[in-house]
Specification:
By secondary structure, the protein is mainly α. The chain is built from 2 helices and no strands.
């Protein structure tokens, strides 16, 4: 009985390492993009009507949905950019 020596195919290891590295780079890139988009905060899940309105208010106060203002008084331009102008008359009945 002759014994044959097992030869490991090294060319497949190089290509699999390249594919795995590209996959990991893509996943980490998406994570960094989400962290950049949301200012380091986790992504919001289960956003309801109240949360959307608070996000819209924060957007009008700070210019960004993910940032919040802790000032006691709203800026002067806040009185001129009302959310009521953005809503249509029938939107109250859509919920």
């Amino acid at each position: 009985m002759s014994r044959t020596k097992f030869v490991f195919p090294m060319e497949s290891v190089v290509s699999m390492a390249f594919i795995g590295g590209a996959w990991i780079a893509g996943v980490e890139g998406v994570k960094l993009w989400h962290k950049y988009e949301h200012d380091g905060k986790p992504k919001r899940y289960g956003v309801d009507k109240w949360d959307r309105r608070m996000m819209e208010r924060d957007s009008r106060l700070t210019g960004n949905v993910n940032k919040q203002a802790a000032n006691a008084r709203a800026p002067e331009q806040f009185s001129r950019n009302s959310a009521l102008e953005l809503e249509s008359a029938g939107s109250w009945f859509a919920y």
